[in-house]
């Protein structure tokens, strides 16, 4: 497996009334993204398939109200 993983469509917001499907974060909270890689032939089996979780310390961030 050697495909590029892209998050160009991931949108973050602190607006709790967001209607666009953005991921809602709390300002001034620290976040640590985790990447879960699962091996499965069907999304239905996702809860029971073997998986690995990866954490990259470099991706830790604190959400702010405005930049």
Automatic annotation (TrEMBL):
GO biological-process terms attached to the record: cell fate specification; positive regulation of DNA-templated transcription
Q: Where in the cell is it found?
A: Nucleus
CC per GO annotation: chromatin; nucleus
Instruction: Extract the coiled-coil ranges from the record.
Output: none
Keyword Protein biosynthesis in record: no
Molecular function (GO) terms for this protein are:
DNA-binding transcription factor activity, RNA polymerase II-specific; RNA polymerase II cis-regulatory region sequence-specific DNA binding
The T-box domain covers 1-67
Kindly give the InterPro entries that the UniProt entry links to this protein.
p53-like_TF_DNA-bd_sf, T-box_DNA-bd, T-box_sf, TF_T-box
Identify the keywords attached in UniProt to this record, alphabetized: DNA-binding, Nucleus, Transcription, Transcription regulation
Identify the domain of life: Eukaryota
Name of protein: T-box domain-containing protein
């Amino acid at each position: 497996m050697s495909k590029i993983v892209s998050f160009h469509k991931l949108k973050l917001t602190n607006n709790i009334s967001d209607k666009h499907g953005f991921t809602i974060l709390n300002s001034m909270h620290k976040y640590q993204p985790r990447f879960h890689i699962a091996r499965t032939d069907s999304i239905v089996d996702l809860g029971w398939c073997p998986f690995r979780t990866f954490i990259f310390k470099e991706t830790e961030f604190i959400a702010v109200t405005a930049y």
